[in-house]
Amino acid sequence: MNRSDALFPSLVQSNKINHALWFVVLAVLGSLLIAISAKTKVPMWPVDMSLQTLTIFTIAAVFGLKLGLATILLYLAEGALGFPVFQGTPERGIGLAYMVGPTGGYLVGFVVMTAITGWAADKGWWKNPLKIGGAMLVGEVILLTLGALWLMYLFGISQGIEYGIGPFIVPDMLKLALAAGLVSILGNTVRSRLR
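Predicted structure:
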């Protein structure tokens, strides 16, 4: 604690409260953006593409590890409580029943890819689209692997590979590249306020 902190402890406490409040506001707004992006469908075959991975990658890279994880976990908690925040809800079910369905592996994968991307962003990789894109690619591979493994468990190996990986490779690579570019633009604005 420096001398000014010792002289004005209430100011220090006020700054901590303001920082925590800002953290909460960003997590809530981020979870809402993820929910909206899950509902934004781009028609494709055999499954519709959402903008969810684009949003999660961007949030993780701009927010960093702690706030990124808080945001994705808040989003998952909202879904577990029955709010229709996931793609296909409420039509395909809500709450925990939906979460252990076909998309369960991807929901877990969102947490892992957020952690990897957020960690890389905290290392300063967000400033370089190629570096942050590389971290996002690792997260994407893990996301697709977890999603496919869960589908294999539910429906068998061939369907897990065919429907769990193949349809997502090209669209997710495009979203990954877009997110890496967006982060280098948005990063300075948000990350400077997180300090």
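Summary: The domain at 3-191 is CATH 1.10.1760.20 (Arp2/3 complex 21 kDa subunit ARPC3).
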